[in-house]
Hints:
Radius of gyration: 11 Å
CATH architecture: Sandwich
Order of helices and strands: EEEEEEEEE
Largest sheet: 5 strands, mixed
Amino acid sequence: MQLDIITADKTIFSGQIDAVTLPGSNGSFQILKGHAALISSLEKGKIVVKNKEGKQEFEVSGGVVEVLNNKVVVLA
């Protein structure tokens, strides 16, 4: 599954992942391959990315996530 985390200044992550956990407005949630289409707002918190290399964390102060056809785009 492809993940892109984009800020106003730059792309801070772009690559293939196994799972991502996001700080949603109503609590954190996880996206896995094959997830249904989704658009959600994000609150301040950590984005946790899991891939073959291990686990990475990114702090965000809010934003929006879109999931469609195994592609996740986070605008933070």
